[in-house]
Input
Amino acid sequence: MQELIYFDNAATTKVSKSVLDAMLPYLEQFYFNPSSIYSAANFSKEAIEKARGQVAKAIGAQSSEIYFTSCASESNNWAFDIAKKRKAQVHFITTEIEHVSVLRTAKYQEKEHKVTYLGVNDDGRISLGDLEKNITKNTSLVSIMYANNETGVIQPIDEIAEICAKKGVLFHTDAVQAVGKLPIDVKKQKVGMLSLSGHKFHAPKGIGVLYVNKEIQFNSFLFGGSQESGKRAGTENVANIVAIGCAIEEAMVCMQKENEKIQSLRELLFDGIMQIPQVKFNGCRNHSLPNILNFSFEGVEGEGILLHLDLNGICCSSGSACTSGSLDPSHVLMAMGLSHATAQGSVRISLSKYNTQQEVHQFLDVCGPIIEKLRAISPIWQRS
Ligand SMILES: *Cc1c(COP(=O)(O)O)cnc(C)c1O
Output
């Protein structure tokens, strides 16, 4: 395989060497079932509790408020389940720009419950007045993502949480893209529930977390054994749990330094891409993750750009990996008011600590010519 330029870190990330080293002993040596009684199994049990502490510390929670899941999609499903069982009459509030694991969970609730989807402004952010206006006495959950996976736009989480606290409504945030990039303190920020996923910050795929504030009463999500305080049965994925603990700690320690590096690559990309004629930046310069950029190129389709980038060994996405494969334009960009055609001409670039300046230059060298070539054969491109 040729040396790839991997600019798709919002889809998933490479497992870091230190994380791999930390988890491997739990596959090879300490493979015991943590619930077993012999002393060797204690190693596994202790490793889980250490990781729970690492995750808790990273987001300002207590260990007892951290529940390991199989992925953030599960965490998001679980958050809705918890909210649903708290009231007889249930009303959910979420946004039009959520990840599909929230959107489709919300959609499913519509069979029995009322769901309100808040729109966003053209910078991708919700309006706080809009949120406040839509909260009723039946509202049992407000679920709003911390930062968007397609645009990197950050929502006003503190203000949203404040409104929810004032109205006595449970607040959940899908913080998958924010963890490791932004400082998070669930207590200070008044977040009731929070989802995160290991594979977005250099742990393996297949491990997630749901934080649930200890004041919230809730029942089991998976029935069976007494793992995860009896709330989620199933033998623990010990190696992955060790990995997520190690990865989140590493992310916290290095956050500032890595953000500065990634941000400088992002600026270089931004300036370079804006040189291309008829390009639109999709996002919000003042409220954005350091690692995600999204652009629309008039007159061309995102898919075509991605194919040509791929021929040059560059991995990018249009929209999110979970929704790709469908021909519909991004629901996030449509919610930001883009036309169908402009939304379809979008490309997302998402960086990690492993990217280099040289990769950015290689990208910029091929990007302009690809757009030019595609426009030359595009039936919808009119030279202005
Ligand atoms: C990737 C992602 C998810 C899903 O996480 P999984 O662990 O793959 O289920 C949810 N929300 C956002 C914002 C994401 O980027």
In short: Residues 66 and 181 are 20 Å apart (CA to CA). The pocket of pyridoxal-5'-phosphate is lined by residues 10, 71-73, 99, 101, 145, 149, 174, 176-177, 197, 200, 208 (CB under 6 Å). The mean pLDDT is 95. The first strand starts at residue 5 and ends at 6.
